Amino acid sequence: MNDINVNACQNNCDSCAPAPQKKMPAPPPNSKEMFKIALNLTIACAVAALITGIVFIFTEPVKKINHLKREQNVIRKLLSLNESATISEVSRVLVTRGNETLIAYQKPDSGVLFTERGEFKERLDTKSEEALEHKFGKENVKVVGRFFIGREAAKVKGFVVEGVQMGFKTHIKFFLAVDDSLNIRGIEILEHEEDPGLGAEIVRPYLKNQFAGRTVENLKTMEVVKEPLPSEWNIVLNQLEKTALEQWKEKNAAIINSNQKIYAITGATISTVAITDGVKSTLLNFKKRIELLRPYL
Amino acid sequence: MKETKYNYSNILLRGLIEENPVFRLALSLCPAVAVTTSVKNGLLLGVAVFFVQVLSNLSGSALKAVINPKVRVPVFVLIIAVWVSVMDMVLAAYFPAVYAEIGLYVKLIVAFAIILSRMELFASKNPVLPSTTDGIGMGLGFMLAMVLTGAFRELLGSGSIFGITIIPTSPLLLAVLPAGGFFAIGLIMMLFNYIDVKRGKKLSGGGSHGGH
Q: How many CB pairs under 8 A join A and B?
């Protein structure tokens, strides 16, 4: 397509006409000068690359550990796990084998494979996502979600599910914590870019704690309402930051039951609806998945 | 600037008030508006910019003899980029709490007009010590601007300073939104000019040394 016949072209345009002699550009720097400039830039880039590379080598492992630590802390806090509790991560992986799409759940010790409809297929001896990639081919494996199981003395205390929902601007990433019978323990917003003073209020106790202690059935009927948050309910919601969930529920049962709705943040109804929808869909999907997966955990 | 004797305190103070990067030179307004929703955020970014400015001025001045004048600007940008990357990685690794707040904006420092502008206007023409002093002055000036704007906006928009509630409601939510940032900087700029007029100076309209 590129070999246009220049001679056949009748348009007297600049793009294919030979450059007219009279319009000579300024003489280029002589080759020695040019070499010097190139060398100067090359050395500068090499030194820059070397410095950033060295710093990267030292900081990257620390960075990864920090990230993991932060996640683990959030999970421990949400499930109120004790010191000896263990947390294991389970990733949900989309696997293409031949022309069928399968869903694998990769645990730290082994994996389980299901069909798209949720029928049990087989157990896998893979021990990591990398092992799955090795088994099915890198291009056939795609991690689509993950959740964590918190155990105290080998007994499941609860789950923390990672959820992502489109907010007002970009995605809101959050952790949803539920106990063994899937009652919500709490949520924690991990990443968001909502407007400060408006949507960013989703991280505040008075919004996120409105979900705490709800059952799946409660949540299904919970609607976002554009009403001002009752001040006594606000006080109770803030108290949860310093009290254990069980005690809080017992003490404030009446007010919790009388507020079976989510009060929208003033000026940020979209963000409130987003997080509510996100929690709803994350929990309902997780309920389906964990029912399938429970015998194999 | 041909004189060989440098008045260091003058160089240092110039960046704070007389040639304040934000309120006087009106440079790097975009990030200034984006970050200053609270005093804490403003201060954190101010500290990050301070380090990048000082280190860039220092290394730019130290290396000016070996940098070919034809590629001076690209090499300066490279120097800034190196320091910003180093800052970014060090913050992420050793100060994760700070990084969680300002990580998004640290990378933007590469494109901060004020840093390249000081390297080109000052560090490329002056020895290491005055250049470093200039960097410290400009860095502190930027930090001051960030803190002032942050305090103004946080107090009006969220009713608090450093997250400590001072006014129980938010008196003027607009202040904390992007548009409010421009108002805040404009108003503080006005205050700077007012002080100048009171002190009997003529309005210079820009940096008194020109060229910005």
A: 70
Please give, rounded to a whole number of angstroms, the shortest distance from the CA of B196 to a CA of chain A.
34
CB-nearest to A40 from B37, B67, B90 is B67
Of B82, B96, B170, the CB nearest to A52: B82
pLDDT at position A101 over 60: yes
Strand order in the sheet with A155-166: A120-124, A111-115, A100-106, A86-97, A141-152, A155-166, A171-179, A184-191
Pair B180, B171: CB distance under 8 Å: no
CA distance A37 to B78: 15
A216-236 pLDDT tens trace: 998 888 899 998 888 899 999
Distance (Å, whole) CA A41 – CA B179: 41
Residue B1, pLDDT score: 46
Phi, psi of A245 (to 5 degrees): -55, -45
Q: Are strands A262-263 and A224-225 parallel, antiparallel or unpaired?
A: parallel
Residue with tokens 């900087």: B185
What is the pTM assigned to this prediction?
A: 0.67
Spell out which residues of chain A touch residue B157, defining contact as CB-CB under 8 Å: 196-197
Among A55, A61, A110, A58, which Cα is nearest to A88's?
A110
A60-82 pLDDT, tens digit each: 999 889 888 889 999 999 998 88
Chain A CB contacts of B90 under 8 Å are: 55, 59
Question: In this complex, is the C-beta atom of A195 within 8 Å of any C-beta atom belonging to chain B?
Answer: yes
Compute how many other C-beta atoms are within 10 angstroms of the C-beta atom of residue A108. Answer: 13
Q: Is A215 near chain B, with CB under 8 Å?
A: no
Sign of CA dihedral B27, B31, B34, B40: negative
Q: Do A62 and B68 touch (CB under 8 A)?
A: no
Tens of pLDDT, residue by residue over B63-74, are 888 888 888 889
Both tokens assigned to B133: 């002093």
Nearest CA-CA distance, residue A231 and chain B, Å: 13
Confidence of residue A157 (pLDDT cuts 50, 70, 90): very high
Is the CB of A48 less than 8 angstroms away from the CB of B86?
no
CA-nearest residue to B90 within chain A is A59
Sign (positive/negative) of CA torsion B40, B46, B50, B53? positive
Phi, psi of B117 (to 5 degrees): -60, -45
